[in-house]
Design goal:
By secondary structure, the protein is of the alpha/beta class. It is about 55% helix and about 15% strand. It holds the Pfam family ABC_tran.
Length: about 575
């Protein structure tokens, strides 16, 4: 969590404590009774009455202290009821689903569409003004929004792996709810409650100002109501009669807003990413490449990537350097979280926010960090093709394959329709996809066919470099082999440089010329693929090779060559 967020939360907490102390201790410290006359009417502030008196001679400071008790009590109770009711309904609707969820959501829709002010007036006329009426009306208005938000979170949790695993092992609903659903959802109740207090106090003040509160009980809203009805605006009394309760309302709302902001980020740390996201800026080239280096299609030098954690930046990739020769295939192997995909996204300048990077990346002798956003956009998809993880899910389900392939062409080239048709059919043939599927939608294709479409999209503009980031993810074993063989075949035929990223060492060995082993964001081993697999002395590399069934070091070369 960012330091600034902690400061914001601390400021909100201090303001809240100040309001609570004023409400609790004020009536005992202030020497006047808020309900009794203690001076002349409309007395201006003085050393005896710091905020003056109202039209009945009652001390306004004493009224504020007494009103703080009422406003805070109504706000906290209303928020508690709304959060409990809304949270319970939301959890049940999200978990049970079916007709129950449909009915609940329609009720929520009706409640959210009801006009607030007419509803308050009707209920107040029926029930009569008072604190109970305020609590009931505000709770009735607020619970639906809480239910909708909690339901959405419950829906996402009940489809997670742990919940599905618990169901498959025969766990009953009560067990799943107690062990998985409620513990995951409950942290959201806290910021929801704090935000509800904020809203409830504002609504209570509004209702009291409209005369729907208890006329015999002091609250900040009722103070404003009487000030307005007794023509305080027509005299200078408005300065000490209207401004102080307004400041109190603003202060308590600000306190709960700041605390809510802190708690939201505490529950969901990803919210800080948007505030911390650095804008990509061009950097000056620190050194020129030699002529030999210019013959290298891609050169990564001292690449370091950092992400914020608890107010500080933590390195996830540290000083990664490698070169890729034209026409070669470089493999990057490592376990999940080793930094493989982070390196790939850094190359195409698509690092996930709020990450930041330093170091140098040269593509055909051009330092990418010196290019502006438009120049980088022209490189992506044209000179550098990218096949993302689980890429088959990236196909737009509502337009045909033909349109998506042509869309990739239109972004970078100006070809007429006939030329685009020719290019689409050519690349589909190259990836082994029958051209009859041009006008199909993604749901009409198998997983392997969709993966071939994504490969076709990466090749459609004839790039010089392909980055394949775990291109076989989610495919069955047979299709994985076909995709790997297809990539190697296309790379050789088109003489494209390629970076092949995977945690599947046998697949990487069958495709690549050179190999990099990554762990914890560092390159721990590198060299020619066969040499690394057979002769590496690094213990981590040896464990990777030894874990491959039937591919002991002596048989690695034979297995790779045969593939």
């Amino acid at each position: 969590m960012r330091k600034s967020t902690k400061v914001i939360g601390a400021v909100g907490f201090v303001l809240f404590i100040a309001v609570v102390l004023f409400a609790v201790l004020g009536p005992f410290i202030i020497p006047y009774d808020a309900y009794k006359q203690s001076g002349p009417s409309f007395m201006a502030p003085n050393r005896d009455h710091w905020l003056g008196t109202n039209d009945m001679g009652q001390d306004i400071l004493a009224e504020l202290a007494e009103g703080a008790r009422t406003s805070l009590t109504i706000g906290i109770l209303t928020a508690l009821f709304a959060t409990i009711i809304g949270g319970s309904v939301g959890i049940l609707a999200g978990y049970i689903g079916g007709w129950f969820e449909v009915v609940v959501m329609r009720v929520i829709d009706v409640v959210l569409t009801l006009p607030f002010l007419p509803l308050m007036i009707v209920i107040a006329v029926y029930m009569g003004p008072g604190i109970f009426t305020q609590i009931f009306v505000i709770t009735l208005v607020m619970w639906a929004g809480k239910a909708r938000q909690i339901r959405a979170q419950t829906l996402s949790i009940k489809t997670t792996g742990p919940v599905l695993a618990a169901k498959t092992m025969g766990a009953n609903h009560l067990y799943i709810f107690k062990k998985h659903i409620f513990p995951s959802v409950f942290p959201l109740f806290i910021p929801q409650f704090v935000g509800a207090v904020n809203t409830a106090i504002l609504l209570e003040s509004s209702l009291s100002f409209l005369g729907m509160g208890n006329p015999l009980v002091k609250s900040w809203g009722s103070i404003l109501y009487y000030a307005n009805s007794r023509s305080a605006f027509l005299t200078e009394a408005w300065v000490w009669w209207i401004i102080p309760p307004g400041i109190c309302i603003v202060m308590v709302v600000l306190a709960f807003s700041l605390m809510g902001y802190y708690l939201e980020e505490k529950v969901n740390p990803r919210l800080s990413s948007y505030a911390l996201a650095p804008k990509r800026q061009k950097r000056e080239v620190v050194e020129d490449l030699t002529q030999v280096e210019r013959d290298i299609v891609l050169s990564v030098q001292n690449l370091t990537v950092e992400y914020p954690k608890k107010g500080l930046y933590q390195e996830v990739v540290s000083n990664v350097s490698f070169d890729l020769q034209r026409g070669d295939v470089l493999g990057i192997v490592g376990e999940s979280g080793s930094g493989k995909s982070t390196v790939a996204t850094s190359i195409i300048q698509q690092l996930k926010l709020p990450g930041r990077s330093r170091g140098s990346i040269y593509f055909e002798g051009q330092a990418l960090e010196t290019l502006d956003d438009e120049q980088i956009r022209q490189l992506r998809g044209k000179d550098i093709g990218y096949i993302a993880q689980a890429a088959m899910n990236a196909i737009n389900p509502v337009i045909t394959i033909d349109k998506q392939l042509k869309e990739a062409i239109k972004v970078h080239q100006k070809l007429d329709e006939a030329e685009m048709d020719k290019r689409v059919m050519e690349v589909m043939t190259q990836v082994g996809l029958d051209t009859k599927w041009r006008f199909a939608f993604s749901h009409e294709l198998s997983g392997g066919m969709r993966q071939r479409v994504i490969i076709a999209m990466a090749l459609i503009n004839r790039p010089k470099l392909i980055i394949a980031d775990e291109p076989t993810t989610g495919l069955d074993v047979i299709v994985q082999v076909e995709i790997v063989q297809l990539l190697r075949k296309l790379q050789r035929e088109l003489n494209i440089s390629m970076i092949f990223i995977s945690h599947d060492l046998p697949a990487v060995l069958s495709v690549t010329d050179r190999l990099i082993i990554m762990k914890y964001g560092h390159i721990i081993d590198s060299g020619e693929s066969i040499e690394v697999a057979e002769n590496s002395s690094h213990p981590y590399t040896r464990r990777l090779v030894d874990s491959i069934p039937l591919l002991k070091p002596k048989k690695v070369r034979e297995a790779v060559l045969s593939s």
